[in-house]
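Re: that backbone. Tokens:
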């Protein structure tokens, strides 16, 4: 059983929850947005947060900077992205980041105040 997400993980989840339908963002872009308010984090850390707690948000809208899907859930992620008409290309399919990438804003720390 996982412990509840810590403050950093909550911020990651808050950012991911803002990704609009039909668009994607990268682990690195999420990390950069959260780093603006926390001063810490990396794409790898965001990946870990998503692996543990991503089921709480639209996890399928987060891909690598190259548009590659998460290996262990690629089939489900691909199906969800296709259902949102996210542009994909190549084989194995990856997201066309030039057309689908969305840049998240830093999380609002006053949301719970």
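Recovered sequence:
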């Amino acid at each position: 059983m996982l412990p509840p997400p810590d403050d950093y993980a909550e911020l990651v989840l808050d950012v991911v929850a803002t990704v609009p339908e039909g668009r994607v963002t990268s682990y690195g872009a999420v990390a950069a947005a959260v780093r603006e308010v926390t001063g810490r984090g990396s794409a790898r850390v965001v990946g870990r947060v998503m692996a543990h707690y991503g089921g709480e948000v639209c996890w399928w809208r987060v891909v690598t900077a190259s548009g590659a899907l998460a290996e262990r859930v690629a089939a489900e992620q691909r199906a969800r992205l296709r259902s949102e008409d996210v542009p994909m290309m190549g084989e194995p399919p990856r997201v066309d980041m030039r057309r689908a990438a969305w840049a998240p804003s830093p999380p609002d720390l006053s949301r719970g105040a």
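The chain has a mean pLDDT of 94. The two ends are 29 Å apart (CA to CA).
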